[in-house]
Design goal:
The protein is an alpha/beta fold and 229 residues long. The protein has 11 helices and 6 strands. The chain has a 6-stranded parallel β-sheet, with helices on both faces.
C-alpha cells in the first residue's frame, strides 16, 4: 500500500484545543482598543493567523491604529491561559500514534508555546525535534505563506506532493496547498463553526474530518487514490 513521505500537523485547533482560548482573549483586547469583535468572528475570519497579522488586517479594515504593545500583551495573556487551561483534542493521541510514517508540526505559534502546550497534554514525545515554527524559519513568513511547510519537507527529505497536512484554518490550508501538498481539513476543535468544513474544502482541502478516529483510513484512502490516479 502506498505511504506518504510525511504527515504534517498544525498545532492550534488541531492537536490542542487552543484556538478558542486565544480568540476570547484577542477579541477582548481588540474590543477594548476600539474595534468591537467577537471570539466567533476571530475564529471564523482570522483563525490560523498570528495576533500581529490579525491586528494588521483589522487596522486596514477599520482604520483604527493599535498600539504595538498590544501584541506583547496578547502573547502574555494567551500564554498564561494556555498553561492553565489548554487540553488535547479528543482522540488525538491515538491518531498521532497510528501515523507510522515521519510526522512533524508546522505552526504559526512560537516553538516555546507549542512545546509547553504539547508537554501539558503529553504529546511532546511524538514531535520532539520535529517542530517547525514559521516565526523561526529564515524567512519568518507565516501562513498563508508556504515557507514553513517547505522548510519541513526539505529538512525531513519529503516530497511535498507526497506529503499530507492536517489543518483547521483557511490560511493553513492555503499555505499547504501553495507548498504543493495535500490537505485534510479538521473541524473537531471547540472553535469550529457551521459551514467550517465547506470553507476548508473551498480553500483546497481534499476532504475534511471531524473526529480523529477517521484519520488513518482517510490517509490510506487518499494515498491509494493518488497511486491509482
Amino acid at each position: 500500500m502506498p505511504q506518504p513521505d510525511l504527515v504534517i500537523f498544525d498545532c492550534d485547533g488541531v492537536l490542542v484545543d487552543s484556538e478558542i482560548i486565544a480568540a476570547r482573549i484577542e477579541a477582548e483586547l481588540l474590543t477594548s482598543a476600539g474595534f468591537e469583535i467577537s471570539p466567533e468572528e476571530i475564529s471564523e475570519t482570522y483563525a490560523g493567523l498570528t495576533f500581529k497579522d490579525i491586528m494588521i488586517r483589522v487596522e486596514e479594515k477599520s482604520r483604527i491604529p493599535f498600539q504595538a504593545s498590544l501584541i506583547d500583551r496578547a502573547e502574555d495573556l494567551v500564554d498564561r491561559k494556555l498553561r492553565s487551561d489548554v487540553s488535547a483534542i479528543d482522540g488525538v493521541r491515538e491518531a498521532v500514534a497510528a501515523v507510522t510514517v515521519p510526522r512533524c508540526i508546522c505552526s504559526n505559534s512560537r516553538s516555546q508555546r507549542i512545546e509547553f502546550m504539547l508537554e501539558k497534554v503529553q504529546l511532546l514525545p511524538f514531535f520532539a525535534g520535529r517542530i517547525f515554527s514559521a516565526l523561526e524559519i529564515p524567512t519568518r513568513k507565516t501562513k498563508p505563506a508556504p515557507d514553513v511547510f517547505l522548510v519541513a519537507a526539505e529538512k525531513l527529505n519529503a516530497n511535498p506532493a507526497n506529503t499530507f497536512v492536517i489543518e483547521d484554518s483557511v490560511h493553513g490550508v492555503a499555505g499547504a496547498r501553495a507548498a504543493g501538498m495535500r490537505v485534510i481539513g479538521f473541524t473537531g476543535a471547540s472553535h469550529s463553526y457551521p459551514g467550517h468544513a465547506d470553507v476548508l474544502t473551498e480553500a483546497g482541502a481534499e476532504t475534511v474530518i471531524r473526529r480523529w478516529a477517521e484519520l488513518k483510513s482517510v490517509i490510506a484512502a487518499l494515498s491509494e487514490w493518488s497511486a491509482d490516479a
